[in-house]
Amino acid sequence: MALPSAVRALHATAARVGAPRSVPRGAAPPLPASGKGGTRPVPSSVPPRDATPTVNFGDPEEAFRSKSSAELLRGLLVLGMCAVGPLVEHNRELLQLGKRVLGQALFERLMKMTFYGQFVAGEDQEAIKPLIRRNRAFGVGAVLDYSVEEDLSPATAERHELEPLGSSLPSSTAGAERREKQFRAHRGFGDRRDGVISARTYFYADEAKCDQHMETFLRCIDASSGSSEDGFSAIKLTALGRPQFLLQFSEVLVKWRRFFHQMAAEQGQGGRAALEMRLEVEKLQESLAKLGIATKAESQHWFTGENVGESGTVDLLDWNSLIDSRTKLSKLLLVPNIKTRQLEPLLSHFTEEEELQMKRMLQRMDVLAKRATETGVRLMVDAEQSYFQPAISRLSLEMQRRFNRERAIIFNTHQCYLKEAYDNVSVDVELSRREGWHFGTKLVRGAYMEQERERAAKIGYEDPINPTYEKTNEMYHRCLDYVLEEIKHSRKANVMVATHNENTVKFTLRRMMELGIHPSEKKVCFGQLLGMCDQITFPLGQAGFPVYKYVPYGPVDEVLPYLSRRAQENRGFMQRANQERDLLWREFKRRLFAGTIFSSNP
Question: What does the pLDDT look like over 531-551, one tens digit per residue?
Answer without folding.
Answer: 999 999 999 999 999 999 999
